[in-house]
């Protein structure tokens, strides 16, 4: 299992890297598009977090999350991975959702904060099936491929797209049990 991080600011990056390490994922790729804005200085080689960081060149900030996945394709190989994007990290961590993903083995599992705002977060767990989806999807009307398009592609082919929520009280919402919610047929989360 690897982790792919599309970094935000320094404090959020530290929170993400600690959360990934707490979940036992030690092989982390950090996609840096354009100037690294101090990302390398903030995270270093990852040893202070108990992880190993590989810096991966990104396509551009406009390429979005799918662009980050494309940039990391060779590094990710056919390994399962957790993708962290957004302005924050789940307060309760990802240990339980990661274990659930490993047991259930969907092509994709989405863990998203349902509270809008700048500190919302999205965490995705993927098998290598995502790479096939990313290569198969067409650019959206906005000009780039969207992660939601790749999730829809997986779902439409019956490859298993599940969603889970964080326990209640972490953001004042949620249903409290953190369990999987079945297929994301009403439209996957955007990332």
Task: Write structural notes for this entry.
The protein is of the alpha/beta class. It is built from 7 helices and 8 strands, in the order βαβαβααβαββααββ. It has helices spanning 10-22, 39-43, 64-71, 73-76, 95-104, 129-136, 147-156, and strands at 2-5, 27-32, 52-57, 81-86, 108-112, 121-126, 161-164, 180-183. It has an 8-stranded mixed sheet with strand order 3-2-1-4-6-5-7-8, with helices on both faces. Helix 6 (129-136) crosses helix 7 (147-156). It starts with a strand and ends in an 8-residue tail after the last strand.
Q: Which structural class do the helices and strands define?
A: alpha/beta
Count of helices? 7
Oligomer: single chain
Sheet having the most strands: 8 strands, mixed
> What is the number of strand segments?
8
- Beta-strand content: 15-25%
What percentage of residues falls in helices of 4 or more residues?
Answer: 25-40%
- What distance lies between the first and last C-alpha atoms, to the nearest angstrom? 20 Å
Give, in spatial order, the strands making up the sheet with the most strands.
Answer: 3-2-1-4-6-5-7-8
Residue ranges: pLDDT <50 for 5 or more in a row? 168-191
**Series of secondary-structure elements, N-terminal to C-terminal:** EHEHEHHEHEEHHEE
Morphology: globular
Radius of gyration: 15 Å
Question: Could you report the average pLDDT, rounded to the nearest whole number?
Answer: 81
